Amino acid sequence: MAGYLAVLADSDLFGTMALISLAVALMGLSRAARGSRAYQLAAFACLLFMPVLYGVGIYILNLPPA
């Protein structure tokens, strides 16, 4: 699992998330989009991405060595 996460973190994960966050932020400029359920879920997912990734990283780092 640690090897998989290392490859995932080295891939375009953060660049992709930055582009998704930018798209959600630009959608938020529209009053109609801000009121939609899809926008609210996308914004929530973008806000929750880094804390979840941090938690997974802390969990992996605290595992005993194999």
TrEMBL record:
Keyword Transmembrane: yes
Domain of life from the UniProt record: Bacteria
Transmembrane segments: 13-29, 41-61
Keywords: Membrane, Transmembrane, Transmembrane helix
Protein name as it appears in the record: Uncharacterized protein
UniProt organism field: Paramesorhizobium deserti
